[in-house]
TrEMBL record:
This is ABC transporter substrate-binding protein. SUPFAM superfamilies: Periplasmic binding protein-like II (SSF53850). Coiled coil: none annotated. Keywords: Signal, Transport.
Length: 421
């Protein structure tokens, strides 16, 4: 009898071990691919990501993620990530929150790995964002946050003047020149320090006038056009005439948002996070601002498509956990928090039509249209060099060292050199 009981106990132990193994739903090698991770990101301007990741860490104690926050400026983050990735071996970062326009460069260099499409809810995303995550027909990252530039304006001031927000550059220029000074305000600003933000602002001006910078997936230089001269000319004139303050030449997103939030600007081009923060407690202009599409020469202009994608380092320690973390961060519940806690535009299309969210974030319908009509930056494995050239040349035009026409000619020459054409 005793041996029967002993054998029974043995079987019970075996059954418990087996069921534990099967409940984990993983084969041994797959479990090896699970474990702790690091997630590198550019500066988290709204401070939401750390607390959000605590939710994952609580429920995934064996796959804890450590957040590595890099600088605010896209270019500095790019430099730190690429230095690390070039170092080979494993590097410090397992999952990388990369700017949408870096996907091609990182994929072509072999720094990030292709991902299986069926593991992620790509069909639930706004269509243009998925394209930013693909290179050479393969998925190399998963869209996480999208972005489009908006024109923020002082609703109180325009209401007093009885004028609607500007739809054209001429209206913007007129209001910035005539209305702003009457209220002790500067007219208009964007992000004009030489870094990725200046490339974005310059591209938006060129695209809004109907021009382009590069064509055919970045292989043809198309910038030498009247539209580009008009776009760069618009910004250069603002600085020359003073309705764009000189200080704007030192602005990145944060500095320009601060100027608006301190009540120093009538109009600001920025990403929607600035609308959310300038509407929050502590902002001098809370409750007194509105957001409309960027203006263009004869009507609404065009925004550049911003945002970031989540990619997995080719040498990631635990690739299965990396993919699981990405699926979590792009789930509907977390994407909702990206908006409600991070004030960042989610990639899930349904959230833009959620009545509760639209009530709380009145700019969502405008933003949805801006994202759907936004123009992507050129998909080039040399995008970093393309952007550096744009920044340097456009800065010379904005500081008055070169006329817009001469700057556009030089831009065409230097872009041809960079892309080898
Ligand atoms: C925002 C955008 C990003 C862009 C950057 C420029 O972070 O989401 O795409 O490159 O601003 O400063």
């Amino acid at each position: 009898m005793r041996w029967i009981r002993a054998a029974g106990r043995g079987l019970l132990v075996l059954a418990v071990v087996m069921s534990g193994y099967m409940a984990s739903g993983a084969h041994a090698d797959e479990r090896d691919r699970r474990g702790p991770l690091t997630l590198a990101t550019a500066g988290d301007l709204t401070g939401y990501l750390g607390p959000l990741l605590e939710g994952w860490n609580r429920t995934h104690p064996a796959e804890k993620v450590t957040l590595v926050e890099l600088p605010d400026s896209a270019d500095e983050t790019h430099a730190q990530m690429t230095t690390d990735l070039r170092g080979g071996d494993r590097g410090r970062f397992d999952v990388l929150n990369i700017d949408v326009n870096w996907t091609s460069e990182f994929a072509a260099a072999g720094w990030i790995r292709p991902l299986p499409r069926d593991r992620f809810p790509l069909k639930s995303f706004l269509p243009p964002v998925v394209d930013t995550a693909t290179y050479d027909g393969r998925l190399y990252a998963v869209p996480y946050v999208t972005n489009a530039g908006l024109l923020l304006y002082r609703k109180d001031v325009l209401a007093k003047e009885g004028v609607p927000p500007p739809r054209t550059w001429a209206e913007l220029e007129h209001d910035a020149k005539t209305i702003a000074p009457r209220y002790g305000l500067d007219g208009y600003a964007g992000q004009f320090l030489p870094y990725e933000g200046l490339t974005v602002n310059a591209a938006e001006a060129v695209y809004s006038a109907g021009g382009t910078i590069l064509g055919d997936e970045g292989t043809r230089v198309t910038v030498d056009s009247d539209a580009a001269r008009e776009g760069i000319g618009f910004l250069a004139r603002g600085l020359r005439e003073g309705w764009i303050p000189k200080a704007a030449l030192t602005y990145k997103e944060e500095e320009s948002k601060q100027a608006f939030q301190d009540g120093r600007l009538l109009f600001l081009r920025n990403w929607p996070y600035a609308y959310a923060l300038a509407s929050a407690k502590g902002s001098k202009v809370a409750g007194r601002i509105g957001a409309v599409p960027l203006p263009g020469p004869d009507g609404p202009g065009k925004s550049v498509l911003g945002g970031s994608n989540l990619a997995v380092n080719t040498h990631a320690r635990h690739p299965d956990s990396a993919a699981r973390l990405i699926a979590y961060l792009t789930s509907e519940g977390v994407q909702r928090q990206v908006l409600t806690r991070g004030s960042l535009p989610p990639v899930r299309a349904a959230l833009y039509e959620d009545p509760t969210l639209v009530r709380r974030f009145p700019y969502l319908p405008t933003l949805r249209t801006a994202v759907l009509t936004a123009a992507p930056r050129p998909k080039s494995p040399h995008y970093d060099q393309v952007s550096l050239v744009v920044q340097a040349v456009v800065q010379d035009a904005l500081t008055g060292h070169e006329t817009p026409a001469a700057a556009v000619r030089r831009l065409a020459r230097e872009l041809a050199a960079v892309s080898g054409r």
